Amino acid sequence: MVFLTLSYCVRNRGADRYWKVQELLKHARHFRGRKNRCYSLAVRAVRRAFVYATKARKQKKRNMRTLWITRIAAASREHGMKYPALVHNLTKSSVNLNRRVLSEIAITEPRTFTALTKLAKARREEGFRAALGDGKEPAGVFSRVMWTH
User: In 57-81, which positions are buried (b, 16+ CB within 10 angstroms) versus exposed (e)?
Assistant: First the structure.
């Protein structure tokens, strides 16, 4: 299509509209009924689908976090420790592992997870001793008190 002046080119919006419609219908191809052919129905259906997709992405994050916590709790119970105590004592021991990594370690490297639970138990015992007034560190555990110079 050849335009002699710029104003004729600007006024012609047919091709832009066509591609806009095709782009939207592409997202609606798998819908049932007229929603995959009729533009006005497809607009609403696609917008609704995108809203559901956004909500599902947030829900997926929640579900994954719940799964990780469940796996860590099951693995920590095998070693005689509850999940909140494990996470709390690992944090106090300056072990900065997130829940995803902890759950992967619990599944793929059980010996490493056992070492982490032993560390958390030692830290918990250290806390009990500090509450009693002993103040001695268990072997192999470095507390923040020892790191100050």
Answer: eeeeeeeeeeebbebbbebbeebeb
Global pTM value: 0.69
The DSSP secondary structure of 36-62, one letter per residue, reads: GT-HHHHHHHHHHHHHHHHHHHHHHHH
Cα(149)–Cα(142) distance, integer angstroms: 14
Burial category of 146 from C-beta neighbours within 10 Å (exposed 0-12, middle 13-18, buried 19 and up): exposed
Q: Which long-range contacts (CB under 8 A, 24 or more apart) does 99-104 make?
A: 99/65, 99/68, 99/69, 99/72, 100/64, 100/68, 102/68, 102/72, 103/67, 103/68, 103/69, 103/71, 103/72, 103/75
List CB contacts of 27: < 8 A, sequence separation 6 or more.
Answer: 42, 46, 49
pLDDT digits (tens, 9 = 90+) for 82-117: 999 999 999 988 888 999 999 999 999 999 999 999
